[in-house]
Design a protein that fits this description.
The chain contains five helices and 28 strands. By secondary structure, the protein is mostly beta strands. One of its GO terms (biological process) is homophilic cell adhesion via plasma membrane adhesion molecules.
């Protein structure tokens, strides 16, 4: 308890007694009885040689359970291991280089570091920092181009996470940093460390071309990211085709099967490959299965009624399963076949929920789609 407020009353022995009260405030001051503590007992760091002088190697995090006047500012001291004065620690706890590192001269440092608090008398703690110097980057990072397809029910997309950029580097200890062309930063952003791509505010239907770069601090590589925002209408939903796959996740379907499936359907239906579009992807019931809602563009299939397209797909299921190597549980356009009422008295409705958008991303493809619902009822 850091303080007490007491109300004290004094009364005399008269008749009637007279009395008065006063307030006594008591502040309990802090004694410096807690040393500052490093977030780790020991630290291990790997750093590439030839980093510029002043390069930040490590941020030391220190906590102190005493009150503020017995805590920071902290005083950091390197007790041993820094005889050549290769490193220094700022009073903010950042370990930096103060000389060039050359692994052929020395490739290992073990620094013994002390931190002291601001109390009287000061208390302190110790830690070790193990530093290994490795050769600088010799490989450029590799970054994959990414194509993103977003389904919007309406004339714009409300924004959110739309994919993840994939980059690799043969230098094992390289740290990769991502960045986006500044001209597009009002519409999109990329997380500098993870490569997660985010669409800001509302975006109109159409196509966007982004230039993303990744650097390891020495080499920089760029790649193009294409974002397609496609509009779906209730008419498209009413003429959509649903295909249920067994034991398949959305990411597996996108990464391993979608392009082959699109190509196979193109040959079966006699349409252009790009006329076959994904409207929605979602796990079915049970969740291990996958529901894919497709739209076949009318421009190419207007001379083929939907029932003919559906018949062609259903009759080709064995061929599709053989080509893809996965089992197709069902292909359906109408749910009414399962209801005990004449078709003319059955009404089916396909809807989407734009408040439940899912992003399914692989190294080269990403799909952002709303959740869909299919219902059918007998009218009489």
């Amino acid at each position: 308890i850091s303080g007490y407020t007491l109300t004290v009353q004094a009364s005399d022995n008269g008749s009637p007694p007279k009395l008065n009260t006063t307030t006594v405030n008591i502040d309990v001051s802090d004694v410096n009885d807690n040393p500052p503590v490093f977030s780790k007992g020991n630290y291990s760091v790997i750093i590439q040689e030839n980093k510029p002088i002043g390069f930040s190697v490590l941020q030391l995090v220190v906590t102190d359970r005493d009150s503020s006047h017995n805590g920071p500012p902290f005083l950091f001291t390197i007790l041993s291991g820094n005889e050549e004065r290769t490193f220094q620690i700022t009073q903010q706890g950042v370990l930096t280089t103060s000389a060039a590192l050359n692994r052929k001269v020395r490739d290992h440092y073990l620094l013994h570091v002390k931190v002291a608090d601001n109390g009287k008398p000061p208390l302190s703690s110790l830690t070790y920092i193990d530093i290994r110097v490795i050769e600088e980057s010799i490989y450029s990072p590799a970054i994959l181009p990414l194509e993103i397809f977003i389904t919007a029910f309406g004339e714009e997309y409300s924004g959110g996470v739309i994919g993840k950029i994939h980059a690799t580097d043969q230098d094992v200890y390289d740290t990769l940093t991502y960045s986006l062309d500044p001209k597009m930063e009002s519409l999109f952003s990329v997380s500098s460390t993870g490569g997660k791509l985010i669409a800001h505010k509302r975006l109109d239907v159409g196509q966007y071309l982004l230039n993303v770069t990744v650097t390891d601090g020495k080499f920089t590589t760029a790649a193009d990211i294409t974002v397609h925002i496609r509009q779906i209408t209730q008419d498209i939903l009413n003429h959509s085709i649903a295909i249920r796959f067994a034991n398949l996740s959305p990411e597996e379907f996108i990464g391993d099967y979608w392009r082959n499936f699109q190509r196979a359907l193109r040959n079966i239906l006699g349409v252009r490959r790009n006329d076959i579009q994904i409207v929605s992807l979602q796990p079915s019931d049970p969740p291990s299965n996958l529901d894919v809602l497709l739209n076949i563009e009318k421009s190419s299939s207007s001379h083929h009624p939907m029932r003919i397209l559906l018949h062609k797909i259903n009759s080709s299921v064995p061929d599709l399963e053989e080509i893809l190597g996965v089992r197709i549980i069902d292909v359906f356009h109408k749910l009414c076949a399962g209801l005990d009422c004449p078709l003319k008295f059955c009404e089916e409705k396909v809807t989407v929920d734009e408040n439940v958008m899912s992003t399914h991303s692989t190294a080269r493809l990403s799909f952002v789609t709303p959740r869909h619902h299919r219902t059918a009822v007998c009218l009489c």
